[in-house]
Amino acid sequence: MIEASISALPGLVSLFVVATVLLGLPAALIAGAKKKSIVLSLLFAATLAGILTVTMTPGSRGVGQARVCDAGLPLGAFLASESAQLNFLLFVPVSVTATLLFRRPISVAVGSVVLAFSIELAQAWLAEGRACTYDDITANAIGGVGGVLCTTVYLWVKERQAPFTLRDILWGTGLAAVTGAALTAAFHFSITTVDGDARQNQAQQKFRDTDQQDQWMNRTVVKIYGQQTEVTETGMQELGHGRWRLTAKTARGEISALWPDRKLESVWSKNNKDDGGNLTDVEMKAAAERFGKEWFPDETAGSRTNFRAVAEQRGAHLLNYRRYVHGVMMPMRVDIIVTTSGRIMGVTAQTTADPSLPKATVTKKEAKKLAEQASDRTEADPVSLLARRVSGSWRPVWMIGLKAHGSDENTETMFLDAVTGKRVQPQNSEAPLPGQTGKANL
């Protein structure tokens, strides 16, 4: 606080002189009327003016963040801080002169603490280039109380009696109770405490993470699209809980990945034409499997595969990976499109870990019967037993296609909880299949 004032406020001395005059004149008049020391009253006014000038003059940093107070440094760093030492010294003169002038050490000590809190509270409310910190409050309060203690010991030794009176004890106690309650309420209801040191560490960590993200994405782009591929555009989307979606665009295609998982989410090649290669189905499947095992080793392990031609794309074939646990298809999805030359044209993946599910008790036959009862005499055809999120929890769910009598096409899809048999509406937790995300030409 003092360092910033001295370096950033060239007019500080002039302001101090003006404040000393404004406070000193009435202080001298009151001291004369009460037969107090005019010299001490002027010194008290000057030291108080110094505090107010240093702490309340708007800083050069412009408007800061209002209603916010920094939690401050750890104890070791606080004690070693030059700023804390200067703030400690700032309050010593005013508490010394006040104790000598008023001879009420308890009241002066309480007043010093109240002044320290009030100044930081005002800085937080005004936010005019000043930052409220609990370090300043602590240092100022310690300085004020320390000055009172030293002066009290001096008076005690000099006058050979304790400079405490019943009136001082009562006034000090009452002042502490009233102002303590008021300041506590003011800080609690109007000030937000933040950990500035932690925020700085988070910002530094975010910078380091961003650098790592860029390096990993650049390596991934080169590995998938080739050495000469340059990233033309990148993006980041915060997903919460420290997770991000990273995207990269190149002249050859786009990539989306999850961080810090370092898992591909999608790969879309701009070249959506078959290469006219002569690989057999077995060789194309092997090429897709190599890609899957390299980029999705955890997801492909223990999964079932299905390999088929993509009807909408001549020459392209789709390799699906699905995993089943106790007959329930897990939410993990990996779909890879490969061309007749073995080039990976498109990838979509949902790399969700296998959730823990309650045991399914509703059979396929029972699910069909329940669906028909709930759908007004339509025919039910259970498609799959899936793990899906329902109201935030993973559940085994029957996905059932409903048909009108005499029709071969599904007219509606119903979901039934495979434990309770109740109809549910699961959250959309599946990754889109290739061709279902606006990339139909792939």
Automatic annotation (TrEMBL):
Entry keywords, A to Z: Membrane, Transmembrane, Transmembrane helix
UniProt region (Disordered), positions on chain: 423-442
InterPro entries membership: VanZ-like (IPR006976)
Keyword Manganese assigned: no
Superkingdom, taxonomy of origin: Bacteria
Residue ranges of every copy of the VanZ-like domain listed in the record: 86-152
Transmembrane segments: 12-31, 38-57, 84-102, 109-127, 139-157, 169-191
Pfam families referenced in this protein's UniProt entry, alphabetically: VanZ
Protein name: VanZ family protein
